[in-house]
Amino acid sequence: MSGFNLSDHRRLVVKVGSSLLIGDDGEVRRGWLEGLAENIATLREHSHEVLVVSSGSIAIGSTRLGINKKRARLEELQAAAAAGQVQLVHAWQESLAQHRIAAAQVLLTPGDTENRRRFLNARGTLEKLLDHGVVPIINENDTVATDEIRYGDNDRLAARVAQLVMADALILLSDVDGLYTSDPGSDAGAEHIAEVRKITDEIQAMAGETQSDIGSGGMATKVQAARIATHAGCSTVIASGVIERPLEALAAGGTCTVFRAEGSPAAARKQWLAGVLEVRGELRLDDGAVVALNDGKSLLPVGVVEVTGNFRRGDVVNLVNNHGTELGRGLAEYSSEEATSLAGCQSEQIEARLGYRGRSVMVHRDDLVMFDHD
Ligand code: GLU
Fold first, then answer.
1. What stretches in the chain show pLDDT beneath 70?
2. Residue 369 has what pLDDT?
3. Residue 373's pLDDT is what?
4. How far is CA 335 from CA 27, 316, 339, in A?
5. Candidates 67, 86, 140: which one to mutate for ligand 1, based on the most atoms within 8 Å of Cβ?
6. Contact at 8 Å (CB) between 259 and 226?
7. What domains can be seen in the chain, in order of their start residue?
8. Is the distance from the beta carbon of residue 55 to the nearest atom of ligand 1 less than 6 Å?
């Protein structure tokens, strides 16, 4: 039995590599994908939320366009990705549709998860898709990514997505069933590691060198992904996807390596917010808003009495009460200019005030931390 209990983790990010999904002929392995879609449907029936990070666009597209992946230039690979992505998502859409599940394509660039303004947009969209019961099928936006800023591998993209949506578990489906003390391909004495509590240099060393080939992240990038995700409070699992219906096997206690999360996703987000050094402004709140925030609710424009500072959407702002006492801080959903015109405004009036459709909250509850006052 593995030490990973799937049913303890509600929101899951499942990463699927090209080698599992795409055959040597450059076509999607339909039977395998349908098995995985069936697993996803079962998980959703058991109240899990599932987001998929799927590779494969370059593998499909390069075959279609007759491009040799090993010798191709970046722009050829980007063209292959563009041609392959449409096929890839279509295959996902059809497989999930057999279970009456809608799919949505989400293409991200590194900036979407690392730049806070885009981060808020990407997260808002993903949350809404989940609210509507849709399975997001996420890939890197290879067409616009450049050499220097590429994620390089979807393992890391999946970890960033897990952090973005505060997932409880990240499942990296791979062609091996976990981390070994050395490369099991070349060392018969290699031992499987079932659980990692802390990613030490020794653990990173076991994973070996990072490979830079597209679609072949290797073990090193999986461990790096686990480092990002566990730090964000998300447990990470490396499990074999070679078998049919791999998530069913994992749920039944199949062999895997689990990297234990450090704390919960919410605690990690709050710790990060508390540690941000650059605070760009301040929102003074009325007493009703203070009560709501202490109850774990989001801050609505109606509760804001005054806005100071010069900030943009995604910047960190202080939250103070009517006496000027600092209560906490959060990520502003609006710029200081917009926030000023929205202060005291009912949510229904936002569009009329701004002249365009806005968002309903000033600071989302997941993006704020309240300080302890004894
Ligand atoms: N985004 C690339 C693709 O869809 C894959 C990158 C990776 O697998 O790491 O082909």
1. 1-2, 146-152, 209-217, 373-374
2. 92
3. 63
4. 46, 11, 6
5. 140
6. yes
7. 6-265 (3.40.1160.10), 276-370 (2.30.130.10)
8. yes
